[in-house]
Amino acid sequence: MLRVQFEEDLEKLHNQFYAMGNEVLSQINRTVRAFVTHDRELARQVIEDDAEINEYEVKLERKSFEIIALQQPVSQDLRVVMTVLKAVSDLERMGDHAVSIAKATIRMKGEVRIQSVEEEISKMGREVKDFVEATLDVYLKGDVDLAYEVASRDEVINHYFDSIQELATEEIRKNPESIVTGRDYFQVINFLERIGDYAKNICEWVVYFETGKIIEM
User: Fold this and answer.
1) Could you give the CA distance from residue 8 to residue 6 in angstroms, rounded to a whole number?
2) Residues 6 or more apart from 102 whose CB is under 8 A from it?
3) How far apart are CA 87 and CA 93, in angstroms?
4) Nearest CA among 54, 52, 30 for reference residue 41
5) Is 180's pLDDT higher than 80?
């Protein structure tokens, strides 16, 4: 009976984690769209909705600690709970970076905009969203080989980071009045790059859950 209850609790934990992941995915999608379309109202919605992600984090942490205290899991069962705790923290940080991008959208009101840079940021944002979505799929499947494959997509994000940084720098040289805008562009691509890092972390936690090995991809 205790085992049945434990497995039911774990199933609820996984479902809540996936729901949180989808909310974070929505935040990433909306915050990038708000930034490249200069939609400050949508940016404000992203900031307001961050409270829901934080609430998910609190609920998942509480449920995880409850399982540890009441079920006293050991070995692989404990790894399951620890994986969720670590991955939840990564998701919450992704949400924080989505909020930071939304704040940049609001802050940039009236600044000179560089269309070519924003087009590339839009592409980077789509790649980041797809990366996070693939990471959630890895989590659901618990597939170690797929975790390595998906984690390698972080290199694509890093390439976008470097190329956009170079493009923005070149555009600022041509038009020094856009230097303040450039600062915000650099911050936004840094936030997107960090979201990619956290997605890769979740792939690493899936490997830990399946093998018991802590690795760095």
Assistant:
1) 5
2) 31, 34, 35, 43, 44, 46, 47
3) 10
4) 30
5) yes
